[in-house]
Task: structure prediction
Amino acid sequence: MTLIKEIDIQQLSNWLKTGKDITILDIRPLSERNEWYIPSSIYVDAYNNLKAGNSEALNDLQIDIQKPVVTLCAGGNLSRFAAKILAKKGFESYSLQGGMKAWNYAFDTAVMEFQNFKIIQIRRLAKGCLSYMIGSKNSAMVIDASLDPQIYDHIAKKEAWKIEFVTDTHIHADYVSRTKELAIFTKATHLMNSLADVAYPFDALSNNENIKIGDIKIKAIHTPGHTWESTTFAIGKHILLTGDTLFTDAIGRPDLKANEEEAKNKTIALYKSLQFIKTFDDETLIFPAHISKPIEFGQAIITETLGKIKVTIPVLSFTIEHFLERILSKLPPSPHNYLTIAEINRTGNLADFIIADLEAGANRCAIN
Result:
């Protein structure tokens, strides 16, 4: 009997962090692969044959038998069969427990240090979700928490920071926010834009209100469009955390949870918010809440200058009429389960849902 070995996301993360020479074999349907994937993986078109129980499904596979192989599917079941086939062929093979649903919670961090504060970017690698911990002296603020509260608490303690404030840039529709949980876990003050339509208490932020963290002040700037409560956070004159309003290569979509008329009104608001952001210096660093592609371990902190973004995203220079026409005619498919996720984030109730199932799939809150 061939033993099927498994590996969890922590072990695979460690292998990738340390540069272990492995092969990650993605056996999912190509449509799923095209949406989200592990950057270093290779794809094999074997899903249908494997699902049919064909033990010869990987006969034509040409990979180095000297390298350990980790098989990857959506949920960690079919990959066991693939790992068993490879083991019989003499490979050191492993099945990734939980598949891509589990890998959705693999993360790493990247750091940028300034004179009197530090920004730590916490990245969910598969989905491209970016959250931030900003620390100065002994205090910190977390923006857009998307992982278990203990992860942020551990990072803060490692830096000798106390998490004083937590917030979301907006009510997310593509992942379940952990900000409310983090506020409870750390006893931090939970801040949100005053327009946030949520069913739990928070401290309301008004436009241009400052939040003091150690030696710095973080300004909350109302930038509606993606959602009505969307907020950009500014540190000084040259750092903007723009949430889903502006990405490094795209802009936020204004149509979610909106009828045709409201989508038009939100698009106009988005245009005005983007024009306001454009008034900052070209050297201003933009830190978004998402990136459109999966992230590699050890990738540099994800940020870009506003000047370069202006060149990369042509719609930023459009007239309002042209902007409306282009945006409303180029809307991508809606995020998976976005209505359910948005409602969870509105109520703050996670208890009745299998979050891993709801969050599976690519990020679709941007218009490229």
Observations:
- The chain has two domains: 6-102, 106-367.
- Residues 260-277 form the longest helix (18 residues).
- The longest strand covers residues 129-136.
